[in-house]
Inverse folding.
């Protein structure tokens, strides 16, 4: 499906009046994942224009907007403090590309969000630096910092988890973006947008048994995340089908896509499909057969976090 | 000086006075400039108990969680990390909590009464008790707490400077820093300081057998006598803990057991009876069992403190089961804190809280009926 067809389904007026962030309202599209092509070799950056086009295209496609700026304005208010959580555990070769993250920052800024109110963050400065980001405590052109163990002082309980959340999500930010990658995970099966939120709790090591289920959903459904999450972006320019979550030479593949979705479950469902597809091409067993079934998506769907039914997954190309 | 609560707990696990205690300050200065560790700069030593798996993964062989860990990931304890197919402990010599406590605080009531134990901990734990009293160190990762480089020899030297005849690996969970426990024990034994451990006993037999003989005493928290409790309340298992208790007893190192009684969760008469009968049958009547009082904390804040009546009932059940040394804890001033001679019934050691009011033992013997009282008395 194309973005224009999606706009017709949603209704032409669905996004009217939201451009430039003047009348922000939440615009969740269950099951919809916007996709844009972006190709670059492993370790090579995308050109700025390519990154911009891909990011804007995926964003617009995810909500049926005319442009990436319009889509950003539909999701974020100028009053927001926007936290973009990047997953940099795997280092430079398998972390969100700086140029894509910066393209998103630009779109947010053009949609009316003050650059000083946009914070790219990960657990530590070191992880950000290893992935190629420059630490910017105060900006410009945006803030980029590790949470560096600044957690709430008391644990929050959500289902089976009891965790202190990073103050970045509990207190500082009013809106959140999960900016992950598309990769295999040796325990949860897939690490994309939802697993990325393990990086905002103090004790993720406690919650890796049983395929990280129900823990991934329990983290994502806590109000700090659920009420603030506006967007999931997945850098699928280079993906990894085996050997995750660390970077594994030989297990990466050129997926050549950037995905954006207001539905975190659907975004991960797409990532899962792509990983399974590549594994099949390589003659690898399915993730389930390999002993790491992706359980957490069904749990997340049951919790009302999004759509895990492949029949209801709607991929919209830019 | 401003200090947040977590740092305060980390410094002493005992309150503000501890944080400013002169011995602690001396220690910090005396530990070779005790450097504060943070972030990714944690020192790492190859772990002693693990095996390599295919594709760069490892399997931890220290505790029954048996975590299978991929590259760059950590085990459930949060203090052991796979780096390129080699498993590392990140907490050897990285003490985050240090303090000189009375040995009664552990509690080890039959070990050098009234003596000081130089107590230490690192971050991390291999289970997650919803009622953990020390969760601000046990449930955190080493880079998330303030810690100091304190190698075993310097730790033992600090113990001697503080006139502590014992060391105690405690507060957090020593199993997760088992290599450090081992090396401290070796260093302590070399200079006549007695090493002790306070543990959950959730450890694999091989690792247990390699270190316990180095210790003078060990206290194990038997958190319940129901496997369901272990699985639901702390994500562990009962059977490995029972096995550990039997192994410790077999090795012959002095053992005491603590049972934290939590209202409605593990304080039924039937469960306490089963527990006491098992201790009597498998470990013998002379292993002290301490029933201690729960206070709401961490993730278990919706239950009241344990009624003293429940503790007293447990005490009676223990005595009726044939246990010679049953104690009550966290009820300062209660007669259940005292050591009574099972031969003549006279009080031998009178305690209030962690204080010894009187100790009538003579070379570990009751002065009235001459009965030998088991323990580590000299």
């Amino acid at each position: 499906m194309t973005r224009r067809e999606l706009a017709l389904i949603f209704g032409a007026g669905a996004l009217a009046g939201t451009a430039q962030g003047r009348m922000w309202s939440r615009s969740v599209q269950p099951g919809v994942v916007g996709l844009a092509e972006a190709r670059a070799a492993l370790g090579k950056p995308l050109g700025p224009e390519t990154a911009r086009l891909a990011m804007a295209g995926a964003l617009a496609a995810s909500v049926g907007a005319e442009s990436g700026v319009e889509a950003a304005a539909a999701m974020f208010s100028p009053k927001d403090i926007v936290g973009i959580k990047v997953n940099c555990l795997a280092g430079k070769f398998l972390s969100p590309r700086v140029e894509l993250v910066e393209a998103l920052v630009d779109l947010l800024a053009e949609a009316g969000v003050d650059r000083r109110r946009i914070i790219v963050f990960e657990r530590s400065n070191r992880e950000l630096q290893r992935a190629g980001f420059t630490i910017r405590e105060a900006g410009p052109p945006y803030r980029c910092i590790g949470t560096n163990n600044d957690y709430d002082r008391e644990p929050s309980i959500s289902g089976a988890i009891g965790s202190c959340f990073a103050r970045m999500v509990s207190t500082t930010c009013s809106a959140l973006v999960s900016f992950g990658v598309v990769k295999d995970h040796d325990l949860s099966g897939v690490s994309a947008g939802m697993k990325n939120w393990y990086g905002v709790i103090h004790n993720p090591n406690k919650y890796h048994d049983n395929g990280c289920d129900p823990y991934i959903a329990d983290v994502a459904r806590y109000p700090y995340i659920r009420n603030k999450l506006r967007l999931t972006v997945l850098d699928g320019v280079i993906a990894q089908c085996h050997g995750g979550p660390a970077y594994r030479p030989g297990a990466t593949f050129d997926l050549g896509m950037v995905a954006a979705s207001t539905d975190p479950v659907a975004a991960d469902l797409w990532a899962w499909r792509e990983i399974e597809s590549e594994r099949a091409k390589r003659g690898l067993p399915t993730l389930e057969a390999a002993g790491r079934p992706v359980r957490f998506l069904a749990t997340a769907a049951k919790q009302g976090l999004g759509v895990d039914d492949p029949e209801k997954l709607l991929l919209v190309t830019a | 000086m401003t200090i947040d609560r977590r740092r305060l707990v980390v410094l002493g696990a005992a309150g503000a006075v501890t944080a400013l205690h002169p011995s602690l300050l001396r220690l910090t200065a005396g530990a070779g400039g005790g450097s504060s560790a943070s972030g990714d700069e944690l020192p790492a030593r190859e772990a002693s108990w693990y095996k390599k798996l295919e594709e760069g993964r490892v399997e931890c062989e220290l505790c029954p969680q048996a975590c299978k860990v991929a590259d760059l990931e950590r085990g459930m304890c949060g203090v052991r990390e796979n780096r390129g197919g080699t498993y590392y402990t990140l907490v050897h010599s990285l003490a985050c909590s240090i303090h000189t406590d009375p040995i009664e605080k552990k509690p080890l009531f039959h070990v050098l009464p009234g003596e000081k134990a130089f107590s230490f901990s690192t971050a991390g734990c291999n289970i997650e008790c919803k009622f953990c009293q020390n969760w601000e160190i046990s449930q955190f990762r080493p880079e998330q707490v303030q810690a100091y480089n304190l190698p075993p020899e310097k730790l033992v030297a600090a113990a001697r400077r503080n006139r502590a005849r014992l060391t105690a690996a405690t507060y957090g969970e020593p199993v997760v820093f088992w290599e450090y426990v081992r090396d401290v024990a070796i260093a302590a034994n070399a200079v006549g300081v007695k090493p002790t451990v306070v543990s959950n006993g959730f450890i694999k037999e091989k690792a247990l057998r390699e270190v316990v003989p180095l210790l003078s005493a060990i206290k194990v928290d038997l958190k319940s006598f129901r496997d369901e409790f272990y699985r639901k309340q702390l994500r562990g298992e009962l059977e490995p803990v029972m096995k550990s208790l039997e192994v410790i007893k077999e090795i012959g190192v002095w053992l005491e057991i603590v049972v934290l009684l939590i209202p409605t969760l593990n304080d039924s008469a039937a469960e306490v009876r089963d527990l006491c009968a098992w201790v009597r049958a498998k470990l013998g009547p002379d292993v002290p069992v301490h029933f201690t009082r729960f206070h709401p904390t961490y993730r278990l804040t919706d239950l009241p403190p344990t009624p003293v009546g429940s503790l007293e009932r447990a005490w009676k059940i223990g005595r009726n089961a044939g246990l010679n040394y049953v104690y009550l804890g966290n009820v300062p001033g209660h007669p259940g804190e005292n050591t009574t001679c099972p031969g003549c019934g006279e009080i031998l050691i009178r305690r209030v809280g962690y204080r010894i009011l009187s100790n009538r033992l003579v070379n570990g013997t009751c002065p009235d009926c001459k009965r030998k009282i088991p323990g580590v008395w000299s």
About this structure: Chain A has a mean pLDDT of 92. The CA atoms of residues 192 and 299 of chain A lie 16 Å apart. Residues 25-118+147-317 of chain A form a domain with the Rossmann fold fold (CATH 3.40.50). Residues 264-281 of chain A form the longest helix (18 residues).
